[in-house]
Amino acid sequence: MGLFRASSTLQQRRGDAGEDAALAYLQQQGLVLIERNFSCKGGELDLIMQAGAVLVFVEVRRRAAASFGGAVASITASKQRRLVVAAQRYLQRYRSDLPPCRFDVVAIDGTVITWLSNAFDA
Taking the CB of residue 11, how many other CB atoms lie within 10 A of it? Predict the structure, then answer.
């Protein structure tokens, strides 16, 4: 499971725990972890998974409760653009034959996990 940094804040530890829960959930659904916390100038991808031949970029959002729109509502157009930039940077490692890709969201509101496959278009 997640490795907590000694200097991490409570919020960071909660975020790591949310990513752990999302990862376990997606693995139970048959997805395979490729990379976790890919970071580059312009953005970060929480999880990069494989679903058959499809490369899946996963954004994990966690909120204590579903009030104010919940975790899903926190993914703004600006956040989506940063995810696309990070995915483009990640895909630069492929010289040719880019795999089919999609963006998924795992929203955690309290203890409820919602998986939105192909959540938005890039």
Answer: 9
DSSP E strand boundaries for the chain: 32-40, 43-51, 54-63, 101-109, 112-120
Burial letters for 41-69: b for 16+ Cβ neighbours within 10 Å, e otherwise? eebebbbbbebeeebbbbbbbbbeeeeee
Domains contained in the chain, CATH given:
10-120 (3.40.1350.10)
This prediction's pTM: 0.84
pLDDT, the chain, mean: 85
Are the CB atoms for 59 and 83 separated by under 8 Å? yes
Phi, psi of 56 (to 5 degrees): -115, 120
pLDDT in tens, 4-37: 455 578 666 666 788 999 999 999 999 999 999 9
